[in-house]
User: Which sequence fits this backbone?
């Protein structure tokens, strides 16, 4: 049985929904099982040596994150995700800068060239990308300029009428 990344994502979402509905005794059992599998996965990682190929696989990457075993820091993963967005951001004349991670909150600065505020779809894409790279973070705080108010003069309204 070989799952593609989309099937893995769907299964993880379904599993998260099921886990939320467990009664406390069943939740304790699942927690104990996850701890045992986490220990086994930690041993696999130590024996594997070069983990580069392992972290490229979405399912393994997810398991490593769940168990706190991912060999890269959240900062490194966020920076890589921002780097992967460079072409997309350049197309929208927008930049995103890493501002740090503190107490589970990621700080980013996003700015658009020649405009007061980046478009909402660009901000959403940046947030999705960094959340996928570092799902263990509690919050993503994006500092972006507020949209400038649009001023329509009475003369402009009259000329269009």
Assistant:
């Amino acid at each position: 049985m070989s799952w593609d990344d989309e099937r893995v994502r769907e299964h993880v979402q379904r599993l998260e929904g099921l886990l939320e509905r467990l009664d406390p005794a069943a939740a304790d059992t699942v927690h104990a099982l996850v701890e045992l599998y986490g220990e086994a996965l930690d041993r696999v990682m130590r024996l594997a040596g070069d983990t580069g190929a392992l972290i490229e696989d979405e399912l393994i990457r997810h398991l490593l994150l769940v168990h706190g075993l991912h060999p890269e820091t959240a900062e490194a993963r966020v920076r890589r995700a921002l780097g992967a967005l460079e072409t997309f951001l350049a197309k929208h004349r927008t930049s995103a800068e890493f501002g740090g991670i503190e107490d589970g909150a990621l700080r980013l600065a996003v700015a658009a060239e020649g405009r007061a505020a980046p478009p909402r779809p660009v901000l959403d894409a940046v947030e999705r990308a960094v959340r996928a790279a570092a799902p263990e973070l509690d919050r993503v705080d994006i500092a972006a300029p507020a949209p400038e108010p649009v001023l329509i003069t009475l003369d402009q309204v009259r000329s269009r009428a």
